[in-house]
Amino acid sequence: MYSIEAKDVNFYYGDFLALKNISMQIEKNSVTAFIGPSGCGKSTFLRLFNRMNDLIPNIKLEGKIMVKGEDVYSKNVFVDQLRKEVGMVFQKANPFPKTIFENVAYGLRVNGEKNKKKIEQVVEQSLKGAALWEEVKDKLNRSAFALSGGQQQRLCIARALAIEPSIILMDEPASALDPISTLKIEELIFELKKKYTIVIVTHNMQQAARVSDKTAFFYLGELIEYDNTDKIFTNPQKEATQNYVTGRFG
Amino acid sequence: MFIKRKYFFEYLWEGLLKISGGLTSVAILLIVIFLFSEGIGIFNNSAVEEGYSIIVGKDNDVENLSGEKIKDIFDQKIVSWKTLGTTIENHDSIMLLRLDDIASYVSENKIASDFSNLPQIIEQIMKDNPSVIGFLPSEYINKDSDYRILDLGKIKPKDFFFGKQWFPTAQPSPLFGVLPIVLGTLLVSLIAILIALPFGLAVAIYSAELASEKVAKLIRPVIELLAGIPSVVYGFFGLIVIVPLIQKLFNLDVGETALAGSIILAIMALPTIITIAQDAIMSTPRSMKEASLALGANKWQTIKKVIIPYSISGITAGVVLGIGRAIGETMAVLMVTGNAAVIPTTLLEPVRTIPATIAAELGEAPKGGAHYEALFALGCILFIFTLVINLIVEYISSKNKNKA
């Protein structure tokens, strides 16, 4: 069983066809990178997996998105349950205006976890999982805004880990960060791969080459090529892919 | 080549803008100064009605009669000097002497047709009746005669701000206790906000977060329509619908109550609260909402735990502005609250508010008199209320801006 499977997906914003007939399978405990020029639909596609696009009015989906074998767009799916299974990290770090501790505990609290010990334990575990624990363990009650940009992004990852998802979607998680913070995030992704299925959207070709097992190249709403990462970067089958990964356009 | 040069029109423009800005500021300042200079004048007024004096017998050692006591004496609620701490032998019960009463002390034919002998007559009466208290025009009072002129002094700030009775036309001593009016204003406004807040917040959340685009587009003009209805129409509606309803519901003698005023004000404050709260809620960054939803929170949890905390200062600003609107509202309140200047103890009693008092009484207050100035002083109090409210809003929204 695949972690995520898309079957003949067409997706519309109003009349605009944003994704054209896309099918894809993503395996468990792998890192998949989505690359492509701006506006190619890679973020839109990513946001279908946890139904984040539902917030946008006038959208229409054709085809099927299966997460762990279940059609997530069927009528009897609880969206909040799906989102607990499929965590998400956004492009810009978006911690809540709360303390560091409360940011990580948020997912537990909205899921009705009341046990203080359990919450403390999960917060620590998640912060460790996001490689942030050592830096913040003495200031858990400080505002999350007191952290640096890179720390904030790792906090958001910790927050996503706290609800114990099996899949983590990352929408350009390092695009607003400096090189050192980016490196930390990439190391983290490498670590997380052992336990989670990760899908990452990135503009940074080297990043895709470094962290991912498989790479999908999108262009103008179409999935041009989807294969093992080394193959995409060394021996792509399509000319458009070749042009893009070598930096001739995009 | 690079010499700075201004052209005629630039000068003209700049001049016009400067003048209009300056004029507006000066006009506003003048209005405020006018308001306060008239208002403060109240404390320069004698506590006795102008042109009149209060006199007692020469052996009467009564002192420190307050305006309220004087009123009670002339209303014959106080009839004995003993209760005022004075003893006059064999003549304890208070006798009143007003211009109209003179005929009951002496036969009418003794009074000269042009009242020229009144001072002598008054002196005679005061001599014969030691227990008399007189309230007479000062022109008939002899400064160096055998009776004592009571000096009540000027209207004291304490009696004005904390006085419990508002009888601006009472004789001989008008009472300007604004406490019932101030309390009435605050009560009506606060209850109005308590009523309006849950509804306003609910509508704001619904139209900003939950309603479909179509419904939201329908709600907004309706709210704006609500803001555009003239207040006298609200007052009319209140008088015809709400007042009888309250009267029936609570089985009251009169339906014109603080509650009726509060309900009308709540309806009037709703548009302010809704639009400002709605803007605040909609200004919550999408990334915050997405973060919450992506963690498996449902809509309601997101609203409660992220959106409301994020927009709370904007919502507060809306509420405070709503209070400001309610405090200053005149016409509708005047029509439905019954306008009795008593300190309110329940919501089901008539109350009177500051704006309603000014609107109702300014027409009958002689210009420059104590009553007139008292109304201006009320205006000052109202001005200070709204100023404080605006400062609070300013403070809250500046705090809001600093939040990243």
The CATH homologous superfamily of chain A is termed: P-loop containing nucleotide triphosphate hydrolases
Distance between the termini of chain B: 46 Å
Low-confidence stretches of chain A: none
Structural class of chain A: alpha/beta
Per DSSP, the total helix count of chain B is 14
CATH architecture of the largest domain in chain B: Orthogonal Bundle
**How many E-type strands of chain B?**
6
H and E string of chain A: EEEHEEHEHHHHEHEHEEHH
Can you put this structure into words, describing what you see?
The complex is a heterodimer of chains A (250) and B (404). Chain A has helices spanning 42-48, 79-85, 100-110, 116-129, 133-136, 149-162, 179-192, 205-211, 229-234, 239-245, and strands at 4-13, 16-26, 31-35, 59-67, 70-71, 86-89, 167-171, 197-201, 214-219, 222-228. With 250 residues, chain A is of the alpha/beta class. Chain A has a single domain, classed as P-loop containing nucleotide triphosphate hydrolases (Rossmann fold, 3-Layer(aba) Sandwich). The relative contact order of chain A is 0.18. The mean pLDDT of chain A is 90. Chain B is mainly alpha-helical. Chain B has helices spanning 8-40, 67-74, 102-105, 118-128, 157-162, 179-210, 213-228, 231-249, 258-282, 286-294, 299-328, 331-336, 354-361, 370-402, and strands at 52-56, 95-98, 132-137, 148-150, 166-167, 175-176. In chain B, the strands form 2 sheets. In chain B, strands 2-3-1-4 form a 4-stranded mixed sheet, with no helix packed on it. Chain B is elongated and about 95 Å long. Chain B starts with 7 loop residues before the first helix and ends with a helix. The mean pLDDT of chain B is 88. Classes of the chains: A alpha/beta (250), B mainly alpha (404). Chains A and B meet through α2, α3 and α6 of A and α10 and α11 of B.
